[in-house]
Amino acid sequence: MSSTPRDLVMNHPISRRDFFDGMALGLVATESPRGTAYPPGPFTVRAGAAGALSVPHALRDGRFWQHAGPPEPTGESYDLAVVGGGASGASAAREWLRRRPHDSVLVLDNHDGISLSRPARFGPQEDGVMCDRETFGSDTLVRLTPGWIARLPLAERARQDLLMLQRDPPDWFPGLSAEEKHERLAGLTYSRFLLEVCGAHPDVERLCRTMSCRAWGYDTRAFGAIDAWGTGFPGFGGLGLDRDKPSRFNSPTVKEGPAEAVPLPLDGRVQLRPSSPVVSVRDGASSATVGYFDGHRVMTVEARAVILACWSAVVPYLVPDLPRDQRRALSLAVRVPLLHATVRVRDPGAWRRVGVRRVRWTGAYWCLSELEPPSEVHLLATPCHSELGPDRGSVAGRQELFRTPFSRLEQTVRDQLGRLLGPGGFDPARDIEAITVDRWGHGRAPEYCRPWHAFYPDGPFPADAARRRFGRIAIAGSDSEPGPGGAVTAAVRAVEELAG
Ligand SMILES: Cc1cc2nc3c(=O)[nH]c(=O)nc-3n(C[C@H](O)[C@H](O)[C@H](O)COP(=O)(O)OP(=O)(O)OC[C@H]3O[C@@H](n4cnc5c(N)ncnc54)[C@H](O)[C@@H]3O)c2cc1C
């Protein structure tokens, strides 16, 4: 089914919501009359959200203090102030009170409602791949049932190459030891491995490119061949390597398996202060002074100890007194952006009729679409410009993510669901009831991985320098402990450093 923007009936009255890093950019509109521009006028941005987004950016760009008045003390004093109410900040507050039950604890966050909830995870295994027109010129949905490779709309040689890579690839590095093979793989991305080592037909690389997007937030042009081997991607069977014995070059998540960040829950003894982006933290003779923007002024509180559980890249702007090497190390922690849409549909039956539940797309805007019964559809897009690698690609992708109008996101959602489910009777104009978009500019915490981080695994690691304690200030946050479970590990370590 091919849909033009006109067919997609974007003016249809549905619920539309747009979030950036968990903060509402505003209800886009519940209705927009026919013939008016879409969206109908600028976003209406709530004061809390506006401050939350603009304050850190103004700090980064050096504009904030030009316009902010002098800080005003609130007169409050706490035993612990925590900056950032995510998994790590919540864990730090909870762990502190476990050790010091009678202390006073304040958690400040720039969200207008502190929430630990993250969007639903996408399931592990797709049951269909959409060889899409963006990649192959026309759409072909291939269900991943026996014989699926023969049904791929690829050149015959590409299908043969894929079969070979799946079933009986040769030893690409004969005569090398296991360690030497690991080292070779550690120097390549998976895309380069397919094209340059295996000499696979380019269609094979195009077909496989989005395989790493769900778990990593970038495609195989950024995903290391060593981690592709550790994950079980095709092409490595002839190397004679034992996947049960991970390579020292494998990233921590591949070595140890992904861990859910299970935050220690906050309890009623913790004071929460949402919509309060922190703008400065200064260590003093008897306490630290924490400044935050309340929407109008910079207010300050005093604290005997401070845990920074916000994004590491923000910390140098809050604590300019940090040593130069530490500030530089903190700024290297670049999070991978993610984009997630939740779509409420009127009738999910089209999925059953089309015969899929979770589909990977090879090159369209959204790389994954999945039905969550009874009637929610999740779509994932990965804004990272993978061709630039995870770090530079994430910076470029985040800028683009913030600039992309909701109308484009809605149009791509409608277009792709129409193309996928149209043969099952789905009509995007009739069957979509609500679209919520979560733009996670600072999504997945960074992880050290090859071939991008030559210091891995032998160190020294930027995170070692980044998380050094600075007087009464300790640094938590998952960015400071790259790898699975980093948010909670970092919180417990930071508490240990300050509370002993
Ligand atoms: C879509 C998505 C899916 C994910 N899925 C998984 C998963 O399945 N498994 C997994 O392990 N991890 C997942 N993650 C990563 C997950 O976010 C982290 O594991 C964990 O939540 C990070 O916790 P944190 O406390 O370090 O950071 P965050 O949860 O990002 O918390 C940091 C907080 O600091 C706040 N902040 C920043 N600057 C300031 C400031 N100046 N003042 C005040 N507050 C500030 C931020 O708004 C934020 O609330 C996912 C992330 C996203 C976006």
From TrEMBL:
InterPro entries attached to this UniProt entry: FAD/NAD-bd_sf (IPR036188), TAT_signal (IPR006311)
Alphabetical list of PROSITE patterns matching this protein: TAT
| Name this protein carries in UniProt | NAD(P)-binding protein
Q: Which organism is it from?
A: Nonomuraea helvata
Q: What does the organism's lineage look like at the top?
A: Bacteria, Bacillati, Actinomycetota, Actinomycetes, Streptosporangiales
